[in-house]
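PT: before anyone asks, these are the final sequences, not the draft ones from last week. 934 residues across everything. Please model them as a single complex and drop the result in this thread when it's through.
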Amino acid sequence: MLTYSLDKTKGISLYEQLYSAIRGDIVRGTLATGEKLPSKRALAAHLEISVVTVENAYEQLAAEGYIRSEEKRGYYVCPVDTPPEPESSKLPPEPGEPEERRWFLDFVTNSTAAEYFPFDTWARLMRRTILDKSTDLLRPTPSTGALELRRAIADWLRAFRGMGVSASQIILGAGTESLYSLLIKLLGRDKCYAVEDPGYGKIAKIYESDDVTVRRIALDEAGLSAEALRRSDADVVHISPSHHYPTGIVMPIGRRQELLRWAGEKEGRYILEDDYDSEFRFVGRPIPTLFAADERERVIYLNTFSKTIAPSIRMSYMILPPHLLAAYQQKLGFYACTVSSFEQYTLAKFLTQGHYEHHLNRMKTRYHQKRDAVIAAIRAGLPRAEIMEQDAGLHFLVRLDTHLADDELQSRAAEQGIRLALLSDYYSDPRNAPPHVLVVNYSGIQPERLGEGLRRLNTIMEGNDHV
Amino acid sequence: MLTYSLDKTKGISLYEQLYSAIRGDIVRGTLATGEKLPSKRALAAHLEISVVTVENAYEQLAAEGYIRSEEKRGYYVCPVDTPPEPESSKLPPEPGEPEERRWFLDFVTNSTAAEYFPFDTWARLMRRTILDKSTDLLRPTPSTGALELRRAIADWLRAFRGMGVSASQIILGAGTESLYSLLIKLLGRDKCYAVEDPGYGKIAKIYESDDVTVRRIALDEAGLSAEALRRSDADVVHISPSHHYPTGIVMPIGRRQELLRWAGEKEGRYILEDDYDSEFRFVGRPIPTLFAADERERVIYLNTFSKTIAPSIRMSYMILPPHLLAAYQQKLGFYACTVSSFEQYTLAKFLTQGHYEHHLNRMKTRYHQKRDAVIAAIRAGLPRAEIMEQDAGLHFLVRLDTHLADDELQSRAAEQGIRLALLSDYYSDPRNAPPHVLVVNYSGIQPERLGEGLRRLNTIMEGNDHV
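LR: through. Structure below.
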């Protein structure tokens, strides 16, 4: 008869102790395949425990497949492998807090200052959402997002972007990157996707990680041309006509019309209009979207709230032309929406109650001031640099007066704690880039450090490393 | 000279009116390509407006590419197409509130009752998060998720699931579906993916929409077998060994070991263990995971908080075996995490402060009670039905006593307001399914309607439609 010493004082239930003991015997082969276990009653009497304890242990062993019960006959041991000797733990080390280099001055990272985010309003609306929407919050929203939020976005676009769209055309996603993946599924993985060169490098990487063919199309002074597209075999082109990153080019109307014509020439051609920072135009009216000028339903519009509200809010959206809606529903309508409904309903309130407009205006004013301050500091600190400004967006370009090659400049600056973004970083072949053009991503720059930082940079450019 | 009547009382700024008027003339061809515009000063005098107003209008037209400025010479009209006559608006109709059929009794939809969600606790932790984390909330979390939350999940899994994992192995995503897409990118789109047949149909649909080859592998009474896998050309298999949906099969230990051997036989083979409802086991210990038994680093574990907390919270995670971590970082580490950091930090507190354990225990008790009540009602209302129970999960099976074919049964029930899920719905070929087995997804059922609903069902099964 099976004999185990079970210990009532151990803090582990008797049934668990018995279960572990029998399982151990099965795994080690002490109890052989096919062997019959003692009856519950007999084992209980033998070990001086209750029948229920044995029953629970047997049930658990049966549930996990170590033994099987045969009606009216009893429990039998199932065939089980003897596992190899456990190796010493192969657990990877616990990660530490991510190592981040602390830069004295960082021209690369655009960041939102914490004090700009309307925490109080957001928290209040979230509380309101929990009170108003408790039942809705426990149901998934439609695949494309909560109707309430899509309507609020449509109203916003009508009032502030001059775009006439229906809520049914809007599809929400947790970040623009996740929308790219949906678009590839919608438009076809066999299509060829064109991106701008220079451009934001992550866009091409995302397309490539999704296993589609990517073409990098060289820009001219008006941006991407239909002519260059025609020379490629691209079917779909991803562009930022309102404000190209990093060159800052605003695509002129003539060029836009050419692109729309290119898209209309062949079935299956589409333009993905990434309107990522159109909200931050400091002078004049917003640049009209390509989407609004599109008569042939060839433009898909993409934008995000992560840049305008906070990066922690993963909410982006795309707008499909009407003829793609049925295909979307059929191919992708079964996907669950990736955005938390808490945040969807909160953002809907934030938009409809006017907080978003208010927030954007405040941000625009502050960015404009910061931009002016950074420009003034550069004029003072780098008098021979040429500032190339476009009154828009969260970056601008500065042509530096130096003979150093870009990589040399970058590595020497890094030694001095200065992280430089250079235009050549955004070219697939850096040799095609105009040299020593600094991309100033200014929103995260601490102005009080700019004087000292630019002094160091100046010394480096003059070929004197001793700062 | 250009002559426009501008109206100061119109509520639109003079510069916008002038901009629109000149743009209209360019688009209509009244102002021809290459034509020189009057000087700012001359036009201002002519229209009796300020030079600044003209300057703003010219700047906007130049920014959008309707005109270009030539230094010292003035502004010239650019080539622009005349757009076709605008068609009547092609805007798709505004969607109404989604039409949902109201069922008298719904056996298909598992839903979480609103009163189970710990709103107060969640709201309090969210407020706390906003206070504690204001700066962190404005920085994106690492691609794999906030370290704090990954550590909390690792601790939870160690304490309650017997799994030893490091936070560095955990990757968060906005829903399990988005993790499948990441996995395909990681393991390869050229691989062949096997799913269980019968199974949760959406899983195969998601793989197919991601353009990978999918094999549906027929189950036997112990679930998916290594033998059946070997007969297919599958490289990766997606299974739920702890509690299969919809059959409820718990994969026995012997079968698990066979699957692990299958995975170890060839480079590139992986098992995706979808542990979607393992938290709801009502009797005995939790079934150990396949991941924990895996000595060869061939198992990737997936689970979600959407099922245990609320579907509105889009938070799932996967655990990679250590040897895949470097490949993940290299291929996919540049992706932004899709989960809102608000909710990541809130969930971390929810886990570490013990609220999750408390919540799960309450849910388990309530589901257990509800399950017992539903089973009792079925025993009373359908005395000849055979209830097939497994003490786990949010569904169980009932073999109905009827001669009606499944589709007939389903459509007659629908006429009576009863929505039936039948086992055959989950088979790729319904003819392979045992007939008239009801899948009772009980968590959304209103028990007070069950008596009347089962009376109607009984009448239908007896072939008498007049209820």
